[in-house]
Amino acid sequence: MTVGEKYRLCTKALEGHTDSPALDVSLFFEDICSLTRTDLILHGSDQLTDEQEKRIDECVSSRLSGVPVAYILGHKGFYKSDFHTPLNVLIPQPDTEILVENTVSVSSFFFHEEKLSILDLCAGTGCVGISVALEISERLPMDLYLSDISQDAFNAFSKNATTLLPPSVRTHFVLSDLFEGVKGKRFQIIASNPPYIRSSVIETLSAEVKAEPYLALDGGEDGLFLIKKIISEAPAFLVPGGFLLLEIGYDQGPEVKRLFEEGPFTDVEIKKDLGGRDRVVLGRYSRCQNGL
């Protein structure tokens, strides 16, 4: 069968089952046949091998059963890199790039220092911390800590960091419940994309989202269980003037901003995503506030 014929058949098969059937099939062809979307047009009359057809069919079958594309292919493009994304690890999403951009932005406050120490908490694939490190590591030496409670996440970010980061970035891999594994350390920046979905909402989500690890989605009854813990505990792990940045749900901005401001944080801001929704809250640790 030709490339064009197979592409059209697979796209039609996925119609009504995914939000972007043409894009999904294009990603399968790119991964299996090394054909970009432009190549699909230019090489539409080329013949596929039996092995290529078989692998494409397996991908489409998995997609029809609700498996996310990232899990089918085992990787996902995020920011400027491609991240190993195995089962049971949160899939990097475009909205989280807002967290990366703002973390890169606040890092400029420390460019005059000898080195920068960053903690990516609830790291998952490590996409946030690694993307930040790739952006700024040429400016000054870095210590990057990647931490998660999940062994699957630990394995994923360890592989991604080893594959993507230059030797100039000193990486530290931590298997830990929040800050347990970094006791006694302080960072200029802590960035986190913690679970923030309300427990009652998870069952209403699409099958594709529910295919991701429950541990990485469930934020408790109000969605803020871990966010509250991080805001409360982070000051003990920040240098004076250090930044805490948290990704949040679209409707959590005002409440999370209030939680920051009730603690020893100043310059608290809500940052919006490209859709105009609240996506990140950041603040600067002020040791003198509230007597701390």
Estimate the strand proportion: 15-25%
Largest sheet: 7 strands, mixed
Task: State the end-to-end distance.
Answer: 69 Å
What's the order of the H and E elements? HHHHHEEHEHEHEEHHHEHEE
CATH fold name of the largest domain? Rossmann fold
Total count of domains: 2
**Which strand order does the major sheet show?**
5-4-3-6-7-9-8
Helix coverage percent? 25-40%
Quantity of strands, as a count: 9
**Nearest-integer average pLDDT:** 94
Uncertain runs with pLDDT below 50, 5 residues or more?
Answer: none
CA radius of gyration is 21 Å
CATH architecture designation of the largest domain: 3-Layer(aba) Sandwich
- The number of helical runs is 12
Report what the structure shows.
This protein is globular. It folds into 2 domains: 3-65, Orthogonal Bundle (Helicase, Ruva Protein, domain 3), CATH 1.10.8; 75-291, Vaccinia Virus protein VP39 (Rossmann fold), CATH 3.40.50.150. With 292 residues, the chain is of the alpha/beta class. The chain has helices at 3-14, 21-33, 37-42, 50-64, 69-73, 97-107, 127-136, 151-164, 199-202, 207-210, 225-233, 253-262, and strands at 75-78, 81-84, 116-121, 142-148, 169-175, 187-192, 238-247, 265-272, 278-285. The strands form 2 sheets. The protein has a 7-stranded mixed beta sheet, with helices on both faces. Strands 1-2 form a two-stranded antiparallel ribbon. The protein has 12 helices and 9 strands. The longest helix has 15 residues, at 50-64.
